[in-house]
Amino acid sequence: MARGAAALTVWVVMVFALLAPSPGGAQTPEVRAYVFWQQGCPYCELAREALRALSAEMDGVQVGEIELGASLEANLLFREVAGRLEIASPAVPLFVVGPRYQIGFARDGSTRETYRQMIAACRDALCPDVVAGARHAAAGTPQTHPPAPAPSAPQAPALERRVSLPLLGEVDLGDLSLPALTVALAAVDGFNPCAMWVLALLIGFLLGVREPWRMWTLGAIFLLTTAAMYFAVMAAWLNIVMWLGALSWLRLVIGALALVAGGYYLREYWTNPEGVCRVTPSARRQTIRAAFQRLVEEPNIVIAGLGIAVLAVGVNLIELACSAGIPAIYTQTLAMHDPAPAASLGYLALYIAVFLLDDTAIFVVAMVTLRAVSGSGTLSRLSHLVGGIVLLGLGALMILRPDLLS
Prior knowledge:
By secondary structure, the protein is an alpha+beta fold. It has 14 helices and 6 strands.
C-alpha cells in the first residue's frame, strides 16, 4: 500500500514537471514599433538613436525606420497613419507602437523613457499593428487585423522653439503664427512695384472716364480678376506640393529659392530707392499701355470688361516674376504646417485679401478724390526690406530646421 502511494506521488510530480513551463524557454512577446523621420531634422536623429538603444536593451523589440521624402509610398503611409490615429498636426519624429504615438523628442531623456513605457505597455497587452494595417490600406490590400482603438498617447514634449535667423538674431518661434506669416508675405507681395505700376497705369486711364459707374466697374473687374487668377495659381501650386508630400528635395529647392529671393529683395532695397519695376521691359510696357487705353475707350462695356479681365490675367502672370517666388515659398510653408483642406483655402483667401488690400485702397482713394495716389515707391522699397528679412528667415528654416515649420 505504501509502495503504491509512493509510486503515485512520483507520477504526479513527473506530470507537473513536464507541464510546468521552463524559465529559460519563456518567449518574450514581440513588439513592433515604428519611427517616421526626415532628412535635416536633428530631433529625428536623436529619436532614432534612442530607439536603437532601446531595441538593443529590450528583448523582442523591432523598430522600423520610415524616411519621409524617400518615396511617395512613405509619404502616403505617413498620412494614412496620422489619419488612423487622428493626429491633428502630424510632424516628425513620429513614434508609433500599437495605437499609441509620440511626436517630437526632448533632450532631457524624458522622451526616451516615454518610448520605453509605451513599448512595455504593448508587451503586457498585445497591441494591434496600426502601421502595418495602414500600409495594407495604402497599398490597396485588404486589412487582416481588427481596427485599431483610439490612441491613448501622452502629449508630446515641447520642441525647442528658439532659433537664430539672419539679421534677426534669436527668435522665439512660439511667438510666430501662420496667420501672421500669411499677412506679412501677402503684404510684401502686394507692394511689389511691377503690380503697382500696372494698377497706376489703369487708374491713370480711368480718371479720364466721364461716367463714374464705368470707372468703378472696370477697376473692380481688374481687381477681382487679379484675385481669382492669383488664388487659382496658389491653389494649384499648393495641391502640387501636397500631392508630392514631404519630398526633401522639393523643400530644399524652395528653401534655396527663398534665400535667393530674400537676397534679391535686400539688394533691391539698397540699389533701387525709387522702388520701380525692373522686370518689365519698356517695349512690353508700351504694349500694355496701348491695350489698356483701347479697352478703357471701348464704348461697349461688356467688351471692355472682358478685355480688362483677359489683360489682367495675362499681365499678372507675366508680373509673377517680380514676386521672386513668394507665392511658391508661402504655399510650401503652408503645406509644411499641413492644415485641414478648409483651413488651407482660408489661409489662401486671407493671403489674397491682404495681397489686394493696398491695391484696393489706392484704387478707392483715386476714384473718390479723382487723383492718382503717390507714395507707392516708398512702400515698395519698405516691402523689399521686410520681405528680404522674412524670406531669408524662411529659407534658413526650410533648409536647416524644417521641423520648426511643422
